C-alpha cells in the first residue's frame, strides 16, 4: 500500500506539471506570444509615452562613408518605470513643423528588444541613473550631396520630429542640418531602441 501511495503521488505531480505547462502555453497563445518566447522582466509595465519622455540628441556625432551618426536618446521623466520597443518615427522638419522629404528608414543592425526604463525618482538626478532610465537609437543622416540635386532638393531643416516607438504623439528636437525636401531620397535611417549608449 505504501508503494502504491507513492506511485499515486508521482502521477499526481506529473499531472499537475502537465496542467501548468498547458496553462502557460494557452496564456501565450491568447496573448499572441509565440510558443518558446522568453517573457521579459519588463512585461506588464506600461509603454513610455511621449509626454513622459525627454527626447534629446547627442550632437557629438561621428562621420563615415558620406553620413553622420548621432545618438538620439529617450529619458524617462515620469514617476514610474516604463518600456520602449522597436523603432521610433523620425523625420526632418522646417521651423514651421512641416515634414521635409521622406521619413527615416529602418536600419536592422540589431533585432528590436524590450527596453525597461526606471523612473525619474530612481535615477537620482540622472547623474548615476542615466544608464537605467534612458534608451538610445543610432541615427544616420546621409550627406545631402550624396544624392542627385534633382532627387534631393537640399534644404536646411530646423530639427527632427520624433515619434517614440508605438506612440502617436510626437516631439520636435531642434537641430539644424541639410535635409532633402524630395521624398525620393531617404536621407535618415534609424536603428531600434537599445539600452543607453554614450555615443555612436
Quick check: average pLDDT? 81
Number of helices: 3
Q: What's the architecture of the largest domain in CATH terms?
A: Sandwich
Topology, number of strands: 12
Task: Briefly note the CATH topology name of the largest domain.
Answer: Immunoglobulin-like
CATH class of the largest domain: Mainly Beta
Unreliable stretches (pLDDT < 50, length at least 5) are 1-41
Main sheet attributes: strand count, strand direction, barrel closure: 6 strands, mixed
Proportion of residues in β-strands: 35-45%
Q: Radius of gyration from the CA trace?
A: 23 Å
| Cα end-to-end separation | 70 Å
Give, in order, the helices and strands.
HEEEEEEEHEHEEEE
Structural descriptors:
single chain; 200 residues; alpha+beta; Immunoglobulin-like; 2 domains; six-stranded mixed β-sheet; four-stranded antiparallel β-sheet; 3 helices; 12 strands; elongated
What does this structure look like?
The chain is α+β, with helices and mostly antiparallel strands and 200 residues long. Helices cover 19% and strands 36% of the residues. It folds into two domains: 1-39, no CATH class; 50-195, Sandwich (Immunoglobulin-like). It has helices at 2-31, 130-133, 149-152, and strands at residues 53-64, 67-76, 82-84, 89-93, 99-100, 105-106, 115-117, 134-142, 154-163, 171-180, 188-190, 194-195. Strands 1, 2, 6, 8, 11 and 12 form a six-stranded mixed β-sheet that branches. The longest helix is centred in the N-terminal third of the chain and has 30 residues, at 2-31.
List the helices and strands and how they pair.
Blueprint: H1 2-31, E1 53-64, E2 67-76, E3 82-84, E4 89-93, E5 99-100, E6 105-106, E7 115-117, H2 130-133, E8 134-142, H3 149-152, E9 154-163, E10 171-180, E11 188-190, E12 194-195
Parallel strand pairs: 6-11
Antiparallel strand pairs: 1-2, 2-8, 3-7, 4-5, 4-9, 8-11, 8-12, 9-10
